[in-house]
């Protein structure tokens, strides 16, 4: 089926790689608000070249690029991607320039090749292949490509809330995925939610000589006590009502994760641990991975942090915390519960500036679209590991009510997204295009 | 008495200031191991100019300069000073260059003018005045001037342990002191001890994406729990046996501190607090100030500390702690108790690198030498506030068995030792020289 399309993909692989390189040469770093308009423009051009109609939707932040092709088919397939990338720092850890992609030993290296410009280009290029080979597309296509994924998709709701019709489809492909540590392809059906806050304590007009600690309050100690009140030593979160609204993993999710190999022993070495949190193993480990919320300290800061000793009583102390939220939890609700908890524990003076916050979202493991993706994958790669959710977060909740989404992609276990020497295996890039052709085929027969 | 000496001091005040400026132009920062030999050489030259014999004692660190003049008198007066200074950073907060002293509105500004080059020079200059006016010195004189006071006098024991004869004297003047917030001269009879340690926790091979916090241990949380176990919310230190060996303030010390005005309300504004630690006031506040040990967090560090959000599970977390020790406590003992405490609480994996450590030391408030200093001060300045101890630390214990010491000096409440725009009042510099002449006179009649 669609042999001319897959032949075109194979024959013109160099062209698709060049197209990807061109997009990766734009340092579209959302955290720095750089290169976003240029990258959005190039994505729009690529979509147009592939025969799609396009529109640029301004937001208070980076614009959202949409593309669509309505062929009057029964089914509609939607893609969610992003043209922004993580900062490339530290530059000196890269073996080749992050924004000048280079091929070495069958891998393409550069910032964004895995997360997620590789996926973006591969998905557009499949449509290019249909167009160039004059093959009739059997499904309708929609693209939503945003530019602030790496900073929490802060302005994406401005687009999605006003365009629920556009983001309604029969099935959608989310932005990331690839091969796991054992080389098997993996699909992720959900994303956890997040609440990112800081805790700030201020006790003195300025840092004092630490000899005065005998009569003055300590901001650092106060932060310690506040943090200690949040989580016990078995990592149980002590905020009143924190777990109340959690929707536990469903029976079918529990069955699905039974099949998953966590590669426990192999990953212990990667993580550098003797054992997992609280000695978790087997099914318990899996259930924590897919089903547990977290209260994690991302950063702690107070006083003197240089070499050697400096005797100071710091005026301030602060920390950054991310709560990963699972199904049923709401970031505003958890924020209120955190505030109430600190007030009740006598920490009403602790300030809690809030950054991101949004809920979890999942596509059911037994959804027909999931089965369809599995079948398409089977035709190209073979077995696929189905994760009911990623432990990470993303704005899936904005789409989830309107379209069942599955996250697959061209990455692999060594892709180092967010790190120096980000890369993809070029052969995976090629085969994920084949898988997409198979997916379109499967979808046309749904 | 000694009018020719005090006249010389007044007439040649400019010369003594020039001498001080010259010493302050040497950026002898022990923390950077810079300018120490040069400063030691200049101090030796000054001592020789003032008619003293000198010797330079090498140590594994900065050399110790000694000077002496044995006039065959009954009493011997010893001075402890240091030629090193704190770093001057941040330079941009200085109104004039830290290492090029400048006079403005009756104050001399520069790094070290207060702590403690001003004292060092004033003390040597008094002997210069005796020599220049051919006035017989009625007491024997000894100087010990070290070069690592600002980094914990780490190598001073190499000198003091081998030279107990030299540091034996009838009375000694320690390195700091001056006028308090109300302008009254203050004397400090003791210094607390110190134990400076770090707590280090490492849990992972490298920082991980924080989504893995659901299955991986957190170094930051572990540090929080370890720290929380050390001190309760009333700042009571929970280490087993921590308070066991404390020698409480003596009856005469308690009587002495009753006379002291802590300027509670005025200092609240300076500190920016509504109330002192645990609501301490009055005698309780004083007893805490002079008699309490501390467990103070000087610094906390883990993970991401930049702007905004970054979702990371930090591999490491650490903090710096200084324990101020009061009479009876020993730093090695407290270190062992801290280690045992953490082991017993299940934190055997927490590393505790140790920096400084030494015990407290005090001269009794009713010692005749203290009375003598009070009388000398009375003749020049009037009333003197006697603090049984400073809440700060210093290596007084190295001298204390061999010589009763009192800390007085030319500083004042606005001197900003250790901070930008360090300064002294030139009139205080002059009058402390007069006080020293009075002290020598009093001592000759002891």
Give me the count of strands of chain A: 20
Q: Mean pLDDT of chain A, nearest integer?
A: 96
Principal-axes geometry of chain A comes out as: globular
Number of helices of chain A: 13
Annotated CATH homologous superfamily of the largest domain in chain A: Zn peptidases
CATH architecture of the largest domain in chain A: 3-Layer(aba) Sandwich
Task: Describe the 3D structure.
The structure is a homodimer of 446-residue chains. The model of chain A has no long low-confidence stretch (mean pLDDT 96). Chain A has helices at 3-11, 13-24, 36-49, 113-132, 156-160, 219-228, 251-258, 264-271, 282-291, 331-344, 368-380, 397-400, 426-444; strands spanning 53-57, 64-69, 76-82, 102-104, 107-109, 140-146, 171-174, 178-179, 185-188, 190-202, 208-209, 294-303, 312-313, 316-325, 354-358, 361-362, 384-387, 390-393, 405-407, 423-425. In chain A, α1 packs antiparallel against α13 and α4 (113-132) packs across α13 (426-444). Chain A has a 6-stranded mixed sheet with strand order 1-2-6-3-7-19, covered by helices on one side. In chain A, strands 10, 12, 14, 15, 16 and 18 form a 6-stranded mixed sheet that branches. Chain A has a 3-stranded antiparallel sheet with strand order 4-5-20. Helices cover 33% and strands 22% of the residues of chain A. The first copy, chain A, is globular. In chain A, β1 (53-57) and β2 form a beta hairpin. With 446 residues, chain A is an alpha/beta fold. Chain A starts with a helix and ends with a helix. The first copy, chain A, has 2 domains: 3-189 and 363-444, 3-Layer(aba) Sandwich (Aminopeptidase), CATH 3.40.630.10; 193-246 and 293-358, Alpha-Beta Plaits (2-Layer Sandwich), CATH 3.30.70. At the A-B interface, β10, β11, α6, α9 and β12 of A face β10, β11, α6, α9 and β12 of B.
